[in-house]
Amino acid sequence: MDTCKAAVFVGTGKPIEIQEFPILPIEPGGALVRMQMAAICGTDVHASHLETTPAPTIFGHENIGVLAELSPIITTDVLGQKLQVGDRVIFRDAPCGRCFQCSMGESCQYSKSYGMIRSNESPYLRGGFGQYLQLSATPWLLRVPDDLSNERALLSVIGNHTCLNGIERIGGVNSADTVVIQGSGPIGLGALNQSLIGGAANVIVIGAPESRLKISSRLGATQTISLSDFPTPEARIERVKELTQGRGADIVIEASGGLTAFQEGLEMVRFGGRYLVIGQWTDYGLLSANPALLTRKVIRVQGVFSAGPRHIIRSMQSMRSIVTAPVEELITHRYELDAVNEGFEAHEKLEAMVAVILPNGDPAK
């Protein structure tokens, strides 16, 4: 095959277009991935409305695929496991190891973000919403175990790895902790999963619609708080206090991105508690919040963005050996490449928990 199809963002307010691209030879030290599944992330949907988003771009940064070509210098994955054409992999650009952030043990400031790179320059295929994806030299590759489903492997990089990073940074979850999660989307349920892995005694999920709260309960939430039943910040704060004997939660995890969520979370944390903020990615500018609560309640606050390689490894391992809940239920909608715009609409309308694109059709068929 000399060419393949990809779904291309061509500008704000325009439908995503299916375009054809050449499949170029891999660069020295690189690889070619035949895509199997790519998630439609909230970041993609949000980016599609921003004038600042580069176009043309092939979205898709939460991916799993099969190695179609592999440079002969790449013989193993990051764990030293043998790699060959036909293996399923999770992948990302390798850190440079030389920048300041790499030196401090943080995410590399120079690594490429597949799914956020312009597709108007060779090698074009730089996002997961295409039949193939070209990886740069010396990519970071993690082989997916044969006994792990595509769904579980993909979910290890949907919310779970970022939440694991955040929970690690804020000091972990203790076995007696009550955790409140603001938001019942993919990040919120990643936080639910990681809180349960950490041993939380109680996990309370706040969100909507009801279908998402039902999934939360099936995945292990001990209580849920519906935005329909508790429509105001004051009502939600009071409900959390009722469920925590008036003290508030040991840990609150903000995973909603809501305008009032940060202030609500400060009110929900107990004295001496911790507040992990993940969802405030959209820059709304200045929001109303009372910083006096930080000092009066001795609250530790931690922000987090994305994750490091070790979080992906640990997240995938937990999906294979620890998580027994039916997490596959989080992937509620599947679309072939030609229906990508339907997938974006389903995500935006909250019809889908996680919608995925199958660029080469359903691999199970």
- The overall pLDDT, averaged over residues, is 94
Q: Quick one: biggest sheet? A: 7 strands, mixed
Strand content: 15-25%
Order of helices and strands: EEEHEEHEEHEHEHEHEHEHEHEHE
* Contiguous runs where pLDDT drops below 50 for at least 5 residues: none
CATH architecture of the largest domain, please?
A: Alpha-Beta Complex
DSSP helical segment count: 10
CATH topology call of the largest domain: Quinone Oxidoreductase, Chain A, domain 1
CATH class bucket of the largest domain = Alpha Beta
Global Rg? 21 Å
Number of domains: 2
CATH superfamily of the largest domain: Medium-chain alcohol dehydrogenases, catalytic domain
What does the secondary structure layout of this molecule look like, with pairings?
Blueprint: E1 3-8, E2 17-22, E3 31-40, H1 42-47, E4 63-70, E5 88-92, H2 100-103, E6 132-135, E7 140-143, H3 150-169, E8 178-182, H4 186-198, E9 202-207, H5 210-218, E10 223-226, H6 233-243, E11 249-254, H7 261-268, E12 269-277, H8 292-296, E13 300-303, H9 309-321, E14 331-336, H10 340-348, E15 354-358
Parallel strand pairs: 8-9, 8-11, 9-10, 11-12, 12-13, 14-15
Antiparallel strand pairs: 1-2, 3-4, 3-6, 3-15, 4-5, 5-7
Helix pairs in contact: 3-4, 3-9, 6-7
